[in-house]
Amino acid sequence: MTRHVDVLIIGAGLSGIGMACHLSRENTGRSYAILERRSAIGGTWDLFRYPGIRSDSDMLTFGYGFRPWIGTKVLADGPHIRRYIAETAEEYGVTRHICFGRKVVKSSWSSAEQLWTTEAVDEQTGDTETYTSNFLVGCTGYYDYDKGFRPQFPGEENFGGQIVHPQHWPEDLDYRGKRVVVIGSGATAITLVPAMSEDAAHVTMLQRSPTYIAPLPAEDPVAVGMKKAKLPAALAYKTGRARNIALQRASFALSRSNPALSRKLLLQAVRVAVGPNVDMRHFSPSYNPWDQRLCIVPNGDLFKVLRSGRASIVTDRIATFTETGIRLESGEELPADIIVSATGLNIQMLGGAAIDVDGTPIATRDLVAYKGALMSGLPNAMMIIGYTNASWTLKADLAAEYFCRLLNHMKAKGYSSFVAEAEDADRAPESMMGGALTSGYIARGDAVMPRQGRRGPWKVINNYYRDRALLRKADLEDGILRFGTRSAAARPVVESRSA
Ligand SMILES: Cc1cc2nc3c(=O)[nH]c(=O)nc-3n(C[C@H](O)[C@H](O)[C@H](O)COP(=O)(O)OP(=O)(O)OC[C@H]3O[C@@H](n4cnc5c(N)ncnc54)[C@H](O)[C@@H]3O)c2cc1C
């Protein structure tokens, strides 16, 4: 049996739930369904279960713009974020629209029918279901859920202990009294080290190269003040959010306009927090601030465990795993009972689903992002990719609002399809996530990430203020985005811009 909805959303994480809420908030009057592979809401925040899992964005900007995040903690833990997303879905009547346990494997656009046909596999029964929709929104995040990025380490077969990856955390892992080595220097490693050192005998963070780490107060003093003054939650959220967007933007802008000053300020804060006995070499990256994502530590928790001696940090390269731990290129041996490979993600688009337009397979790498939200040559479709240099949600919210504007505009004008077509000259070599950051996972994802453009709406600007103007206010009919009507459906909907 084929089921039809106006809008088919893939993924019930932060973006998919947000998208569904916007569909009703913006009164689009469109029916929708969400196909979700997992058995629960939350995406990333349901999948990742390692000790201490938390956001590294402040919650006033990581929360949805339309639903206040109530709380005074700057960062939040995974279970609280998961609950916030699930409660938002309940509040907006989204939950009953989700078909859980459905893995989307293929979506095909037909210009003649002006319709997407999507195949999803019920992973429990193995049955394939078919859905048709006028619009398709990919909210599948940006990485492979099945397998985290885990290099093959030399000699790892000799290691007598356990090797674990944060994406596949064994529920029953008992690390009490054990010696743990955490390989990595990103947000996950920086979270794991203080969390595990509470119970482990010792935790060593082994990094190949340092990352910028900024200590922040765990509690937001302004939010605490507003709560004490009994300011309405919505008002406190709005003002706190506006302040954090501005501060984050200013920090990013400073890193671009004066990287030397930005570096000096960041390193000074670390020097004060870490104390005189820890070598600053471990905190002095070779790149400029915000070339890679900045890591936040609440109340300097990482620095505290380093100072106390319960954890230590080593900057070196792995020569080989041994039976009892890791031998480094310097010759030093790190004894370990458990090794955590906090080595990151494998980038994947559309959750690995195949996509075609009128029977022609589309490689996601060949797409060019339009306004950082639509994709060249993909009619009636959107892929939500949030910011990497700020909170993901800021962009996901704007993209969803833009999509709803488009739907309402199409209804008012009697349009049934839209498509943006990039010309060769529009296409830049960088991926959508490239340009702003140079992190390893972005480089690894280059083979599958859609491109961005050189100019105009093709350029991914990663600037909330400018995106807000572009997505909320700018004319929808800009001469690049082309609209079609059902009566013209016999002709291919994808027309070239010069036609
Ligand atoms: C450990 C970790 C911490 C992070 N912390 C932050 C942070 O602090 N700030 C920030 O801005 N960003 C952070 N991110 C990025 C984070 O992924 C986003 O912030 C956000 O959660 C993405 O939401 P999403 O809904 O777009 O994608 P996801 O959370 O990845 O959800 C995608 C959903 O789509 C489903 N899905 C995927 N493929 C298919 C398919 N083929 N068929 C059906 N369903 C499918 C998945 O099961 C999942 O439920 C973090 C990422 C990780 C891994």
Briefly, what is this?
The longest helix is centred in the middle third of the chain and has 25 residues. Helices cover 28% and strands 23% of the residues.
| Inertia-based shape | globular
Structural class: alpha/beta
Supply the number of helical segments: 12
Uncertain segments are 490-499
Backbone CA Rg: 24 Å
Residue fraction in strands? 15-25%
The average pLDDT score comes to: 93
Topology of this protein?
Layout: E1 2-10, H1 14-25, E2 32-36, H2 44-47, H3 59-62, H4 78-91, E3 98-100, E4 102-110, E5 115-122, E6 128-138, E7 162-164, E8 179-183, H5 187-197, E9 202-207, E10 213-216, H6 221-228, H7 233-257, H8 259-274, E11 295-298, H9 301-308, E12 311-315, E13 318-321, E14 325-328, E15 333-335, E16 338-341, E17 354-357, E18 360-361, E19 369-370, E20 374-375, E21 381-383, H10 392-413, E22 417-420, E23 427-431, H11 440-444, E24 451-453, H12 464-473, E25 481-484
Parallel strand pairs: 1-2, 1-6, 2-3, 4-17, 6-21, 7-16, 8-9, 8-16, 9-12, 10-11
Antiparallel strand pairs: 4-5, 5-6, 13-14, 14-15, 17-18, 19-20, 22-25, 23-24
Helix pairs in contact: 1-4, 1-10, 5-9, 6-7, 7-8, 10-12
